[in-house]
Structure formats: C-alpha cells, structure tokens
Amino acid sequence: MNRLRVGIVGSTGAVGLEMLRLLEETNFPVSELSLFASERSVGLTQLFRGQPVSIRPLSDTCFRGLDLLFNATSGELARKYLPIALEEGTRVIDNSSAFRMNPEVPLVVPEVNAHRIDSSSTLIANPNCSTIQMCVAVAPFERAFGVKRIIVSTYQAASGAGKEAMEELVEQTKAFVNGGALEARKFPYPLLFNLIPHIDRFEENGYTREEMKMVNETRKIFEKPEWRISATAVRVPVIRAHSESITLELERDFDPETIRAVLNDTPGIVVQDDPETNLYPMPAQAALRKEVFIGRIRKDLAFEKGVSFWVVADQLLKGAAWNAIQIAQTLVERVWNIRF
Asked: pTM for the complete prediction?
C-alpha cells in the first residue's frame, strides 16, 4: 500500500483547517480524503490538491474503509464517534482531551516519546497545545541535566479557544475603534486590552483544568510521575501563538552557553536569544511557523541549579495540527512502511 484513505473530523475548525493544509504541504500519501464537520457545514466543499471535497455528516458508518482518521473536535464527540472508527479498523490520531490520560493510549510529542508509536498503535492522543510546546522545550534539559521541578506561566492566544474566539477578539478590536461595546461570548470577559487568568473550568484544588492538563500530561509524556510541576494559564489578547515563561530546577549544574549549544542541536527548536540586539521569541514572529522558539535563557535566582527561559510556538501548528501530522508520519512509516 503506497497511499492511504484518510479522514478529518472537524475539518472546518481552526485546527482542522491546518491539518488539511499540512496534509497537502507535506505531500502526505493520501489516495482518498474524507472530510467531516457539523451539520451546518455538510454539503459545502473544501479544496485539497486543487480539487473540491464535499463535507460529510458524522454517522455510525461514515468511517468505513478509512485507514487513518484525524479528530479535531471536542472530547464529547471523540468519545461518541472514535470508538466506532476503531471498531472499523481505522487508526486514529485524536486532538481532543478525551483519551489523553487513558493509560492504554499513548500521549505523544514526537520529539520526546516517538518510541510510543508502533505497529500496535490504533489510537494515539495529541497532547494539549500548551503542554506540547513546553515538553519540546523541556526535553533537551531532561536529557542533558535532569529535571526535578517545573514552574510555568502561560500567555495563551485567543485562537487557542477556537476559530470563533479568534474572530471575537478581531470583532472587539473593530468595535473599540468604532466606539462600540465590547461583547464577550467565548470568554467570561472581553479579551481586548485585558488578561484573563482563567482557561477552562476551575478544579477543587484552585487550579484550572488547563493548568492540570499541563501537569498531568507532562508527567505522562516523560513517564515522570514524581515530577513537581506548577502551572498558571492566562488568556491574552493575541491572535495566534502561545507564549510560556518556564523555570526548571535541574538535577545537575550547567552554564547558559552549554544550554544554548544543547538547544541549538535539538531538532524542532530555534534559539532566539541575544539581549544586545533585542532578539527573543514573540508571537508575531512565531505565528504560522512549525518550530518551538526559545529565548531569554538565564540562570534562575531562586534555585541553585535553576534555569529560566521564554518559549513561543504556534499552538494551531506545533501545538495541534503539526504535532498530529508528525505523529501520523511516524505511524505511517512504522505501520505501512511508507517513507517521507
């Protein structure tokens, strides 16, 4: 088999649109593409390799004959429909949170734990967007120095809450310019000129679900249940690309130049770190890029063996669609022996 029958659930959403674009950009071995979305999109078409593909509704039989399925919808829909796809023999890469913490389901960031993908993999979970970029950044530190503790604060773009949230921020900007009221529908308050320290629901321990995703998913990905991790997640008025301030307490001492050398040798990471020329990662430059950008690297003043740094990545790409495509590329090579 040289080409696969591939499907995308949620092809009209922010992540689904990127998955569709990346399948074409990477020349993914697709023989037949099936697109699925909500009822209001059924019957519309999307272009793939210059040809229109009709959007189909979800049903109990819609996945029949597919080799590989990408899910870019909610956990609720994933729990309802992905077991049907698996019963049909379709291999699934799931971007929702539905199965991430299931001990039987690999949770994969290819730069960290691609070894979890093999011929037996039928369902693979894509981690949370903020988790992915943090794990890519933390992995070289763990390999070179060992990690004891992680403290992270996130600055998450509006588009992390979906296409409608991104559009809401644009609408608020237009309303402000025109002297209108700032309406909030996707967030508890208007995001324009504001920061909202509240992403997903609050848990009993005072952390939000987003923050606990970062804690629990990171431990699972690295297979380090003993890691001490604390996270604070904040929504910011940025259209695209998440930023994170990370402090690590390391097992072994280091110097910043060694760290820069280690990071420069790590695939998928771009070091932008020159205070003299004001070079550091920013969302405006990271948007639409697949890499994880790291800068502001410095010895931490709170921990004897601590390091602090700044990380930026496009959460729709590396934080979602691109990570899923990377998983798929590895899966295709190991299951169907198709090389990229």
From this structure: 0.97
Tokens found for residue 300: 């931490």
Which value, to the nearest 10 degrees, does the dihedral of the CA atoms of residues 143, 145, 149, 154 take? -70
Q: Are strands 45-48 and 51-56 parallel, antiparallel or unpaired?
A: antiparallel
The residues near 277 (Cβ < 8 Å, ≥ 6 apart) are: none
Backbone torsions φ then ψ of 172, nearest 5 degrees: -65, -40
Gyration radius (Cα) of the chain, Å: 20
**Number of Cβ within a 10 Å radius of residue 25:** 12
Which residues are the active-site residues? Answer: 129, 242
Tokens standing for residue 97: 């949170």
Domains of the chain with bracketed CATH: 4-127+320-335 (3.40.50.720), 131-315 (3.30.360.10)
Q: Residue range 4-25: average pLDDT?
A: 98
Structure tokens at 248: 């690590």
Task: Report which DSSP code applies to 114.
Answer: G
Query: What is the CB neighbour count within 10 angstroms for residue 278?
Result: 6
Amino acid at 222: F
- Judge contact between 242 and 133, C-beta under 8 A: yes
Q: pLDDT band at residue 1, thresholds of 50, 70 and 90?
A: low
